[in-house]
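Q: I have 120 residues here and want to know how they pack in 3D. Can you give me a structure?
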Amino acid sequence: QVQLVESGGGLVQPGGSLRLSCAASGSIFVIKTMGWYRQAPGKQRELVAVITSGGSTNYADSMKGRFTISRDNAKNTVYLQMNSLKPEDTAVYYCNADVVIVTMFRSDYWGQGTQVTVSS
């Protein structure tokens, strides 16, 4: 019904930058909140940042000032600009969307994840 496809992950040196994208497609009526989560090996999945359809944002404390979330509602796409990356940012990053589909059914959807590795 709804697919989320992430892109933009990869290997980057400490202090570097990456930009992640996540495009939603399918039987979408409206997308409420979109967000990014991450999961490092041996750890639980954690919030990175979320953004509402109106543009209000919320960040995890460790990402404030380094990461910026944005979205293009016309393209059903959410972005995550990551600057000043640290080795501890290494994780699989997942896109999440709170979607109302054309039948008015509302549910959470997840992307497949994209690997971000910060290493010299």
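Q: Anything worth noting?
A: The CA atoms of residues 71 and 78 lie 4 Å apart. The chain has a mean pLDDT of 96.
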